[in-house]
Design goal:
The chain is α/β, with parallel strands linked by helices and 332 residues long. The protein is 27% helix and 23% strand. A hairpin with a 2-residue loop joins strand 1 and strand 2. The structure holds adenosine-5'-triphosphate.
Length: 332
C-alpha cells in the first residue's frame, strides 16, 4: 500500500451526463441533471453549493448508493477504464473502497461504539481481500493509521476514547485502506473546531499525495476549501453551473451564481456588510423555466427565462452553464 502512483495528466475520473431523480409523493425531483466533469490523478476538487443543490446526491450516485425513492436515470462514472455504472452488484461492491472511497457526512459519528477501531478496519478490508492473512491485513490497517498521523495504539481503542478530529482521521484511514483512485469526502470538517478542521484537511492533503488519488471535497466553507483544492465546482439546483481552477474561481468567477457566492464571502474591506444572494434556492419540484437561477440573477436576459443553458467549455478549459457565454464557447 501507498506505493507512489505516477502522477499523470490522464483523467482518472470521468463523470458523464449523470442523472438522478427522486420520485416523491409530491412529484419528481431531478436532483442531478446531466452532470459531467473530469478529474486527473492527484487533483483535488471542492464541490460547493447551497443546501439541497445536489452535492451529496452526486457523491451517492458516484458510489451507486442512491436509495429509493431516488433512482440513477443515466450517465457514466468512469474510474480508470471502468464504468462503475456497468458493473454488476458484486463488481460494484468490490470497486467501493478499492477504486472509489466515500467518507459520508457525519462518518465519524457512525463508527461502531462497541468494536475496537482496529476490528472495524480489519472488517472493511477482509471482504475485499478474502485470501489475505490476518497479520497482513492488520499491518495494512496500522499503516493506514500511521498515514493519517494517528498513533498505533488507536488500533486497540474504542471510538469514545478519541476526539472528533481523531475519529475523522480514522474514517479517512478506512477510506484509504485499499489505495482508491478516487476519494469523496462529504463535509469532512463540519462539527469540528477551526484548528481541527485545518488538521483534517492537511491529513486529507497528505494521504492524497501519498496515493496520488483524485479527491472530491464536498463542503460549504469556500474559504477553507480555497486553501486546499485545485479546482472548484459550483452546483445549483442539481446542475453543475461552473467548474474552474480555484484561482479562476476566486479572482474571476464567470457564472453569476458563482460570482454571488464569492462576493458574499466576508472580507476586511466590507466588514460589517452582509452581502447575500437575493431570493431563495428553488424547490426541485417546481424549478423555474429556462435557467433555474434566472429569478435570482442580476445579469438575467430575456432568453434565460425560456431557454435552458447547456454546459460550455470556455477557452482555457473551464466549464460554465450560462447564456452570458453563448458566444465565446463550445459545448461541453
Ligand atoms: N430521500 C430523498 N427523497 C426525496 N428527495 C430527496 C431525497 N434526498 C434528496 N432529495 C432531494 O435532492 C435534493 C438534493 O439533495 P442533496 O442531499 O444531494 O443536497 P446537498 O447539496 O448535499 O445538501 P446539503 O448541503 O444540505 O447536504 C434535495 O433538495 C431534495 O429535494
Amino acid at each position: 500500500m501507498h506505493a507512489l502512483r505516477a502522477a499523470t495528466a490522464d483523467p482518472v475520473l470521468r463523470v458523464r451526463n449523470l442523472e438522478v431523480t427522486y420520485y416523491t409523493d409530491s412529484g419528481r425531483a431531478k436532483a442531478l441533471d446531466n452532470v459531467s466533469f473530469t478529474l486527473n490523478s492527484g487533483e483535488k476538487l471542492g464541490m460547493v453549493g447551497e443546501s439541497g443543490s445536489g452535492k451529496s446526491t452526486m457523491a451517492l450516485a458516484m458510489m451507486r448508493m442512491i436509495k429509493p425513492p431516488g433512482r440513477i436515470e443515466g450517465g457514466q462514472v468512469i474510474v480508470g477504464d471502468t464504468d462503475l455504472m456497468s458493473l454488476d452488484q458484486e463488481g460494484m461492491r468490490k470497486a467501493r473502497l478499492s477504486k472509489i472511497a466515500y467518507i459520508p457526512q457525519g462518518a465519524m459519528n457512525s463508527l461502531n461504539p462497541v468494536m475496537r477501531i482496529g476490528a472495524q478496519m480489519v472488517d472493511a478490508v477482509k471482504s475485499h481481500l478474502p485470501g489475505e492473512p490476518k497479520a497482513a491485513i492488520e499491518a495494512r490497517c496500522r499503516r493506514a493509521l500511521q498515514s493519517v498521523d494517528l498513533d498505533a495504539s488507536v488500533f486497540r481503542m474504542y471510538a469514545h476514547e478519541l476526539s472528533g478530529g481523531m475519529k475523522q482521521r480514522v474514517c479517512i484511514a478506512i477510506g484509504i485502506l485499499l489505495d482508491p483512485h478516487v476519494i469523496i469526502a462529504d463535509e469532512p470538517t463540519s462539527a469540528l473546531d477551526v484548528v481541527t478542521q485545518r488538521q483534517v484537511m492537511e491529513t486529507i492533503d497528505n494521504v492524497q499525495k501519498q496515493i496520488n488519488a483524485a479527491v472530491i471535497l464536498i463542503g460549504h466553507d469556500m474559504g477553507l476549501m480555497a486553501q486546499f483544492v485545485d479546482k472548484v465546482a459550483v452546483m445549483y439546483a442539481g446542475r453543475l453551473v461552473e467548474m474552474s481552477t480555484v484561482r479562476e474561481m476566486f479572482t474571476d468567477p464567470k457564472h453569476p451564481y458563482a460570482r454571488a457566492l464569492i462576493s458574499s464571502l466576508p472580507s476586511l474591506e466590507n466588514k460589517g456588510v452582509f452581502q447575500g444572494i437575493p431570493g431563495l434556492a428553488p424547490s426541485l419540484l417546481r424549478l423555474p423555466s429556462g435557467c433555474a437561477f434566472h429569478p435570482r440573477c442580476s445579469s438575467a436576459m430575456a432568453m434565460c427565462g425560456t431557454t435552458r443553458p447547456e454546459p460550455r467549455i470556455l477557452p482555457g478549459g473551464r466549464s460554465v452553464t450560462c447564456h452570458l457565454y453563448d458566444g465565446e464557447a463550445s459545448h461541453g
